[in-house]
Amino acid sequence: MATDNFYPNPTPAGPESDLDMFCDDVLLDPYPHYAELREMGSAVWLNRIGMYIMTRFDDVQNALADWQTFTSAQGVTMNDHMNEALQGGVLCSDDPEHAKLRKILMAPLQPKELAALRGTINAEAEGLVDRLVEQKHFDAATELAEYLPITIVSELVGLPESGRERMLEWAPANFDCFGPENERTQKAMPVVSEMLHFALTECVPGKLKPGGWAAKIWEAADRGEIPAEQCAAMMNDYMGPSLDTTIFATGAAIMLFATHPDQWDLIRENPSLIPNAINEVIRIESPIQVFSRVATKAFAIDDIVIPQNARVLVSYGAANRDPRKWQDPDCFDVRRRAMDQLGFGHGIHQCLGNNLARAEISALLKALAKRVKRFELNSSKRHINNVLRGFASLNITTH
After folding, report:
1. How many helices (H) and strands (E) does the chain have?
2. How far apart (Å, rounded) are the C-alpha atoms in residues 259 and 309?
3. Is 398 left (phi over 0), alpha (psi -120 to 50) or beta?
4. What is the pLDDT of residues 41-79, one digit of tens each?
5. Where on the phi/psi map is residue 179: left (φ > 0), alpha (ψ -120 to 50), or beta?
6. What range does the domain containing 323 cover?
7. I want to staple 64 with a disulfide (CB 3.0 to 4.6 A). Which of 179, 272, 315, 346 is the partner?
8. Is residue 142 part of a domain?
């Protein structure tokens, strides 16, 4: 249902669709629907939620780059409640405020700091893979993919122990609440409220790990770089995105290599392909499928005019499989040059932690390539989420 933030005209210009993008069946297999939307036009009006959607690569990339026209400052989710809750964080801001906040959050993620972490990441990955390969049977979605984000990232963020174990529940609920006001969003709201309450009451000086990433936000407030009342909102930028996106990308990689053994052979023969393979995994199975923006002015794409104040979905998942951009877009090919895939975003809002995510996934794949000839996929179950795409379970046997 449209709200005051969205374009209220019941007969918008351009193509329209009655597709329910956020029902279980579509979330489980969105790609045929993305293909239909791409063919309908550069921007398609979704009648069920009163928003436009962009699905073509060039249009999505251009919108992400043009933050002056497609603003994040009015929120990047699809409901007013969550957009209001996230105000003050880096996701729901534009320059110059965004640049200021991003600088604070990026401080522990600079190349020098990440270089110091690589030894720890690689050692943890080697030990984990040794244990799992000895087991032979394991759940790659949990036992493999969750390990590094939980053991390393949650420790680096430095939350109080009382909340750290809840991060795996808070993160997907957070992303569910990025969706429209559907049943899934409403069910997740109490979990997100718990997370926000925790940020307000527990993520404070004296309770955070000294020197941790979260504590550094308060240090910025002490220096006068941000007001103290903004610190809680910025905690979400570490608590929400730091886990599930990396976890789901790792799971997707294992699923793809299990179902494309020829591609795993290429990795084993030439591990230098791993950085390229990570981009291809993100391209073909984008862990974040869609965010939204608001048009600050009327904007024409081809013969379609998106009106001022319309909320527009930018679909990374659809753009990353656009045949206008990619040859054989549904084909998984680790040799593909996919550096410009949009799964980590684009422009000023590119993912803060993408280099850390790459380091974690790379460490696991390198360790696996030395020990595993084949992944046998015994069973799998998708995690259904309004925004995220990934697996709840991936039962694997290694050979």
Report:
1. 18, 11
2. 44
3. beta
4. 999 999 999 999 999 999 999 999 999 999 999 999 999
5. beta
6. 1-105+289-342
7. 346
8. no
